[in-house]
Design brief:
464 residues, alpha/beta, MBL fold metallo-hydrolase, Metallo-B-lactamas, metal-binding, metal ion binding
Length: 464
């Protein structure tokens, strides 16, 4: 059996390629939207992709599963409980798929989503015992898939109870040696405290996963895995992802390079309503095109771009380097955005030398923030970190609105007071500060270093 995991840090997503060395057939699981890497792997291994499946209809990214049949005779597999808008071979609890020496057994594992399935894999070239579990969003590393993403409070409670039964009756009875490969891994918001490793074992999780200790009581398990103080805020783009994944995302076709734009053409697009997405670092964004939104290209780019950018508005890019163009484009495509209309040729140097207008975002160190808190009683400190970060220590005078919630709660931020935005390091604060400036706030600063620097400096924090 050939096995390969593909890790996408920006989404905390893992997908899988499993191939039979006996027949040359392969299956791809939880497919990301840029599917070329699966075909490159099949070519390198001398295998042919024959099957593809998603463990569930994802909330956090747009699937690439519908792209695959366009590239070959590939059968798509889906949960028998899923109501999908594209043709699949429906499989339910106990159903099996054989590829030479490899046996896949479907386990119906609801909880994270109602239709969720996992795949128990046996490599019969090594023996008749299962060797690994492709667990999707059920059992994660040091965590479990959050059950609070769909439905009413009553339905969410039922999902948590379903997840309890899934873990207790389907997954934990498996032998200790079975390796567990989840779809949601480090960096994903589909769990509250996902561990940094990219795989685990049944035995390790049985012994070390604190959430599993409460499985004896459905109510206690539900209480723990639905504790909002431990769960990250849900980004606004997630509901769009699940809807598109149920229907079947539109096919990408041939993607053309977004064109480089002169300053004049760039201005015309912006005046016509396009949003400028500045992908430079927070420090570089201190001088920027008026109205632009800053999401620095990095490991968290996808989540924050999806949190603050509306879905149906043309985008223009400001890049640190022209070589970053397709990295940015694919990260946007993976969460359902269209290709940008273009990017600023020559970057900010071209903008400055064209004598075009520039807006400033003030940057403070934590030392300046402390002095300003003491001097200016009117200062509004906005903390945009996650709830679990807030619990571990925050400024006594701060108000918390997570970055994911901010677009829906903008009016809770006063317009007539100076605003100092704080996060863990300054990255999310720059996203939030740029969003406020984009929507008309004027007295906004970004605190570089954030709470990490505040604590390092030994300044006082409050815990709640």
């Amino acid at each position: 059996m050939y096995f390969q995991q593909f890790y996408l840090e920006s989404l905390g997503h893992a997908s899988y390629f499993i191939g039979s060395e006996e027949t040359g057939e392969a299956l791809v699981l939880d497919v990301r939207r840029d599917v070329d890497l699966y075909f490159e792997t099949s070519l390198q291994q001398g295998m042919q992709i024959k099957y593809a499946a998603d463990t569930h209809q994802h909330n956090d990214y747009m699937t690439g599963i519908c792209e695959l049949p366009e590239r070959g005779n590939i059968q798509l597999i889906g949960s028998a409980r899923a109501d999908l808008g594209y043709p699949v071979r429906e499989m339910g609890d106990g159903d099996r798929l054989e590829m030479g020496e490899i046996l896949f057994e479907v386990l119906q594992t609801p909880g994270h989503t109602p239709e969720h399935i996992s795949f128990l894999v046996t490599d019969r070239a090594r023996g008749e015992d299962p060797v690994l579990l492709l667990s999707g969003g059920s059992l994660l590393v040091d965590d479990v898939g959050r059950p609070d993403l769909l439905g009413s409070p009553e339905e969410v409670q039922r999902h948590a109870q379903d997840l309890c039964q899934t873990l207790k009756n389907k997954i934990l009875p498996l032998p200790d040696h079975v390796q567990v490969y989840p779809t949601h891994v480090a960096g994903s918001l589909c769990g509250g405290n996902i561990g940094s490793r990219l795989s685990t074992t049944i035995g390790y999780e049985r012994r070390m996963n604190q959430l599993l200790a409460s499985l004896t009581s459905e109510d206690e398990f539900a209480k723990q895995c639905l504790d909002l103080s431990e769960l990250p805020a849900v980004p606004s783009y997630w509901p769009r992802m699940r809807k598109a994944n149920k229907q079947g995302p539109p096919l990408l076709g041939v993607l053309a390079d977004p064109p480089p734009l002169t300053v004049s053409a760039f201005k015309q697009w912006q005046q016509a309503g396009a949003i400028v997405l500045d992908c430079r670092s927070p420090e570089a964004f201190a001088s920027h095109i008026p109205g632009s939104i800053n999401v620095g290209l990095g490991s968290s780019f996808t989540i924050w771009a999806g949190s603050v950018l509306p879905p149906d508005v043309p985008l223009l890019l400001v890049l640190e380097r022209s070589q970053d163009l397709w990295d940015v484009c694919w990260q946007l495509i993976r969460i359902g955005y269209d290709l940008p209309q273009g990017w600023l040729a020559g970057g900010m140097k071209a903008w400055r030398t064209a004598a075009a207008e520039i807006e400033q975002l003030t940057l403070w160190t934590v030392q300046v923030l402390r002095d300003q808190i003491e001097r200016d009683q009117d200062l509004f400190v906005l903390d945009v970190r996650q709830r679990q970060e807030w619990k571990r220590g925050h400024l006594a005078s701060a108000t918390q609105i997570t970055g994911a919630d901010l677009p829906q709660r903008l009016e809770e931020v006063p317009r007539d007071r100076p605003i100092a935005v704080v996060c863990g390091s300054g990255y999310r604060a720059s996203v939030a500060a740029s969003l406020l400036l984009h929507h008309g706030w004027t007295k906004v600063v970004n605190v570089l270093g954030g709470m990490s620097a505040w604590k390092k400096a030994g300044y006082e924090v409050t815990r709640s």
